Amino acid sequence: MSSPLKRSIGLGIVILVKIIPVVHTIHSLDSEKLAHELSKCFKEQPQGEKKTLPVFLEINVDHEPSKSGLLPEETLELASKLAQIPELDLQGLMCIPAPGNTHPAYSHLRTLAEQCGNHTKGLLSMGMSDDFEQAIHEGATHIRVGTALFGQRSVPQKSG
Q1: In sequence order, which residues have a C-beta less than 8 Å from that of residue 9 and are 6 or more positions away?
Q2: Average pLDDT of the segment spanning 59-79
Q3: Domain assignment present for 122
């Protein structure tokens, strides 16, 4: 799941309670508050074989005001705090860079992942249909290639 999950806190934890049992991995964790809400909801749900909830920290590598995510300088502190929450399994870091800035952004995310050391499993979720080759070259372990598989999304025209 890589939509801005933090919006669900504003809607209440009802959404979290409903999605936790069916979500494999959260790719958009960007605050300690959200981490604790996810942990709480995870504990309250029957998980079967699932012992922990895999998560990625969403990093706003380009400091874009229109995007969610932690600022790079906040990453290590939150990663160390998440390592103390037993219900969450911090897989690594995720970013969606500004168009045209993929190489420096992916390189920066890789460096941040190295700085996080033992707090994560070292995985990197970065790259989409147009730039996944560059992301893989920079160390991506997870890529998003929906457009390559399903084609461009159609944007509904506004009437009026």
Answers
A1: 16, 33, 34, 37
A2: 93
A3: yes
CATH number of the domain residue 132 falls in? 3.20.20.10
With respect to residue 154, please indicate whether it lies within any of the assigned structural domains.
no
N-term to C-term CA, the chain:
34
Q: Is 158 domain-assigned?
A: no
Residues 6+ apart with CB under 8 A from 52: 42, 86, 87, 88, 89
With contact defined as beta carbons under 8 Å apart, do 60 and 92 qualify? Answer: no
The whole-angstrom separation of Cα 65 and Cα 82 is 24
95's CB contacts (< 8 A; 6+ apart) are 58, 59, 60, 61, 69, 105, 106, 109, 125, 126
Q: Is the separation of the CB atoms in 85 and 35 below 8 Å?
A: yes
Domain limits at 53?
Answer: 7-148
Query: What is the C-alpha to C-alpha distance for residues 88 and 85, in angstroms, rounded to an integer?
Result: 6
Asked, for residue 160, whether it belongs to a domain, the answer is no
The model's pLDDT over 138-157, given as tens digits with 9 standing for 90+, comes to 898 988 876 677 778 777 77
CA dihedral 53→54→58→61, nearest 10 degrees, is 160
pLDDT band at 90 (very low <50, low <70, confident <90, very high): very high
